[in-house]
Amino acid sequence: MFSCEQCGENFKKYKSLLLHRTKCKTITCVKCKLQYSALNFLNHLMECKVKKTTDIEDFATFKLHKKAFKNTLGVYMKAESWNSIESLLAVEKDNIKNLLKYILEKLGSVKVQVCVLLKFIKQKPDGELDATEIYKVSQMHRLTTMHNFSAVIKDWIEQLELSIDQFTQRGSGWVLEKVKVLEIRIGKLKEHSGGCKTTRLPLILHRKKSLLSPNCKKECFKWSVLMGLHPQKRHKEKLYLYKRYEGLYNFKDVGEMTSISQIKRFERRNNISINIYTLSLDEKKKIVPLVINEKRKEKHVNLFFYNDHYYCITNFNALIKSNRSWERFYCYSCLSGFRDVHSLKKHEVPCYNKAPQRVILPGTAKVPTKCKFNKIEKTISFPYVVYADFEALLVKSDKALTRNTFEYQKHEACSFGLVAVDWSDNIIYKEFYRGHDASEKFIETLIELREFLQTHLDLNRKPVSMNNTERIVYESATQCYVCHKLLNDDKVLDHCHLTGKFRGAAHNQCNLQMRLPDKLPIIFHNLKGYDAHLIIKGLKTDLIKNISVIPQNTEKYIAIIMDNFLFLDSLAFLLSSLDTLANNLPTEEKTKFLKQVFSEADLPYILAKGALPYEYMDSWGKFEERKLPPINAFFSSLSQKTIDQQTYDRLNGIWNHFECENLGDFHDIYLKVDVLLLTAIFQNFRATSLKQFGLDPCHYFSTPGLTWDAALKFTGMKLDLLTDIDMILMIENAIRGGISCVMSRYAKANNEFTEEYNSEEPTSFIAYLDVNNLYGYALSDILPCRNFAWVPQNEVDGVIDEILNTNQERKTGYILEVDLDYPESLHDEHNDYPLAPEKIIVDNDQLSNFQKEIVSMLEENGVKRYKTKKLVPNLMNKKKYVLHERNLKFYIEKGLILKKVHRIIKFEQEPWLRSYIQMCTENRKRATSSFEKDFWKLMVNSLYGKSIEDKRKHSKVKVATNGRQALQQIRKPMFEQFYILDNDIAIIKLKKFEVILDKPIYLGFTVLELSKLHMYKLHYDHFKPKYESKLSLTYTDTDSFIYKIETDDLFKDLEDFDYLMDFSDYPQNHFLHTTNNKKKLGYLKDEMNGQIIDEVVAIKSKLYAIKYGANKKLTAKGVQKAVVKSSISIENYKDCLFSNALLKHDNFRLQSKQHCISSVRINKLSFSPLDDKRYILDDAVSTLAFGHYRINTTLD
């Protein structure tokens, strides 16, 4: 039985219902209130001239919670209690329907989604109930009429219930108690004019003759599907040819206006698969994938969605193919092209493991094929830089966000300070403000500052000043001093506009690149984590017109660009607290800026960072207090400590010296000092970078970008970028981080220096050894750089022979995909540190009985085990394992068997980064201040990060500041979600369907491979041969080993390894102390510096404790360091290991939601005894690597 959604009449046949729909006059025009049949409604809709009012308000039981841009975006909210999603939508269906009718009447077409706040509960073993609350959001639906409302409701139920199932499944113990809040989020949709018949394709797509548009006024989805499944030879656009197939499919779930989100149900009901593509609505106008099915069904159709209209793609390859490409077959997911079907099929297997995105490769779409330094504009120093800081009141709050999360403070901006520094390190502008409107006042101050700086620059511009010698140099110049190419007729004179100094003869285009930057950098320390939220909250769109962000996610921004203001985070460059950085900076560098605001007499009091009683200052009245609060008022819940007496005495000295009348005066001095210290620190950092590399850090977002360009500029290297998508996929899927794993979960030393020495037992020591800058060592090695190509199959044997039988550095290198066997004869010897680690998912049935019992215990306590891919060293055979040639040679030398070679990439290689790293290392040795030493260390350590950058993971977030921008984003098929900050500002999240793969990821892959190789060589070629079975690896973490060694004298042994060791940090009176290998890359150092380790408790990766004498080193990833230091003991680790004890602690942190900052206390699980990277035996200590032959024996 089929029912008409409008009038309720029933029909036995679906065809009868379709016929009835064309006559049913129950569709009411929301503009003029007249009724029309479905057949005539769209025509009327285009012609209806009744003017509608567009101001939306509260409606019935729904409150208009927020709106922006004069109703372009809106959020309706209803807070009650419902038992489930299905009951909510059943109870509220009519109310939602009436609300959406009202919205359509006011706004016309909209995109709408539903958001719910869910409360989950579970019972703990002690009988108490635990609870948590989570927001879940549906997909966006396009709504033009209420005709298909029932299908939309069904969609919402399916999506939200699936999301709930994913949260509650896998033994989590969580049960949905109730739905607390219902939100209806709407975005006004500016439709293109006309209906399906009026849609016109861009000319470039029309000429391809690969898209077939149904000749219809409605139901274009249905007809496009039928055209794709039942192609006709003639008159392909005529609908009557497809009517005979209409009854073969159930189109009940899709209506005349079909949303993308409705198509999944249609696919399931009809057992077909559909891919959908669209056109990116930006300046590039590229075809991008919108919805891709990983598994193509026997019945499959490709559709194109443009201007709210579906087209049937009749020839996918012709549609994607460009006029200049030679490929004939294209991948449905990444749109990469191939010459034959066989190559395409091989490519699809790894490609479908990635999110569907159009991949833009080097050599296409004007993407360069070389990676080199060509950003000449980044050598020009910014004439002005602004340094700023916000302070906030921590207003007391008393709000339980969940049962385990408690909000105890809200952060409200109370003040800001900023100074502007010119090219000569002069502070030419300063403003310090305290008031309720600090965020808003900050933006106003920036506008005033911009005008001031423009006037200052105009007054200080200098014309060129040249002497006779310089004139002769210019006249005789035949080469551009910027790009070093020959000069032609476009030769111009280039000079510094600030000093008037002649710089050289240049091409006109090069001269334009040397212009002064037009952006004004504004530097905050911890912009991403704190100040950016206060800036966004204070935005005034009448002052700021264009806003863009470099997002980490929808809440955290790496950088913000507002008109010509460029907000940067100094913490992304200098990875330490402001206090530490200030202490490391030479005094003369600090006083250079401090004395421009303070007097000479003030300087002794302000050379170090001060302190504020942040948590004490919870109201504006505290600023009026007339004395410094007691020392305990300076307690910080984040650090779990207060200041020491010496610091408190210094603060009292500041109060007295500056004759503070109240706490407000003291606060103002603190703010000034903070801003000026930040100025001194970053200006020194800029000066060092400009002096050494000729690059201004203000052109970059972080240190990795800066040091990467510095290395390219210093070496002059031109790296080839990969232009073959299969090479990229092969390397992407083989990027494996550092090995972090526990091999033996408890180790106790037994020697005369330990507390419980037993002379009856063998003498043993525990050594904690760490490699100096492991990644820097690998970066100094020979690395791939150019001429990447596949090795033909008939040359594979010769390549393998070359790899296995040559030792010297070769000009040609290889990356291989192979099958390897791990013989059982090696399992015992290699159990501690298996070769060729893999990213795998360890299933429950691979765990030992001991581990399964822990899993059950955790589930009883409401803790579920997430099965995610982890890097696991194992003894299993390897299939299609991708590795560097030098790793392959080592693995084979150690006994692994090469069974098959699938494919090989060859390339030219050279140690092109070695000179840069050596230069940084030598400069670090010569540095005279801690600040400068840290600079050079940072330049090396940050280099690796850029070589491994994954552009697929970049987010796409837009900031809309007017209705036009919001409408533009809403209309895009990529429009995914939004949240409103104010009446005239909203954050919009878009799906990312295009990625440019222009990074040399082969470098990051090689660095990771060579780093592992170095660690394997240390273990198997040095320590293992010396100690054999007396060596036991307890724990390893990327660049470190913790060994238990049966030996009479560890330090005598280490002396034998002096060719590997850096003993420079040992006490000078220690017999091993020497500076011969000080800080040399790749050398090992003793982390304990000669101190004796008593015992190690290692529960799992990143969760271990080391006891040495009266001291301890405790590591617990995910637990606040202050909590580890104040609340956790080595006994807690032992209880967790030997008694399976679970340990919870209160963690204190800052969190933001929609850019509102709060301090929260979270009671979270700190310790769990489950480690699933190894097969743990019943003693809870001994482990086997997965794949070990003894596991099968144990199971038997």
TrEMBL record:
Name of this protein: C2H2-type domain-containing protein
A GO CC term assigned to this protein in UniProt: DNA polymerase complex
Lineage of the organism: Eukaryota, Metazoa, Ecdysozoa, Arthropoda, Chelicerata
This protein's record includes keyword Zinc: yes
Organism name: Tetranychus urticae
GO molecular function: zinc ion binding
Keywords (A to Z) from UniProt: Metal-binding, Zinc, Zinc-finger
Biological process (GO), any one: DNA biosynthetic process
UniProt KW GTP-binding keyword: no
Gene3D superfamilies in UniProt: His-Me finger endonucleases, Palm domain of DNA polymerase
Pfam families linked to this entry: Endonuclease_7 (PF02945)
Occurrences of domain C2H2-type (ranges): 2-21
